[in-house]
């Protein structure tokens, strides 16, 4: 079972990275870090198929059995970096693959807009987006990392109950 966690912040110092790394560690998942993977801006031209970052992303997505998308909330939405990465992928990469949505907000009840947008985009990609979701607020981080033990354990346990799907088909 290969789980792929996509960290949707373009910022190397982003808290989304901290959350995504923590989740990847706990799930023993592969991390796709969009602050490191230098994807071009999707333009639909066939030359982009040869781009090393695009090839790496597609190979990783093909091999995945399940996904976690972690997006920062930027201007009341999911990050452009994550949306751009998903532009390079298609339904074939996501169909029947359980997908967990997590967002990281700046506070002030942010995060839900990013989650709702990801849910719509997930439908467009045929991802099996699970109903449970979680927002990390600034208070969920300390200088040591993520500080949201109970909620994090619960959401990851719930996600793991969906991981039978691939084997049931
Ligand atoms: C361009 C930009 C727009 C942002 N807009 C919002 C927003 O609309 N709502 C919100 O809760 N936080 C907003 N934030 C704060 C981020 O959600 C916050 O930095 C959080 O840690 C996740 O982003 P990060 O992973 O890049 O740190 C914004 C941050 C940036 C850089």
Structure write-up:
The protein has 169 residues and is of the alpha/beta class. It has a single domain (3-168), classed as Rossmann fold. It contains seven helices and seven strands; from the N terminus they run E-H-E-H-E-H-H-E-H-E-E-E-H-H. The strands form two sheets. A five-stranded parallel beta sheet has the order 2-1-3-4-5, sandwiched between helices. The longest helix has 13 residues, at 15-27. The two termini are 14 Å apart. Bound molecules: flavin mononucleotide.
- Reading side by side through the largest sheet, how are the strands ordered? 2-1-3-4-5
Distance between the termini: 14 Å
Mean pLDDT: 97
Individual helix count: 7
What's the helical proportion of residues? 25-40%
Please compute the radius of gyration using only Cα atoms.
15 Å
Q: The biggest beta sheet, please?
A: 5 strands, parallel
The fourth-level CATH homologous superfamily is: Flavodoxin domain
In the CATH scheme, the class would be Alpha Beta
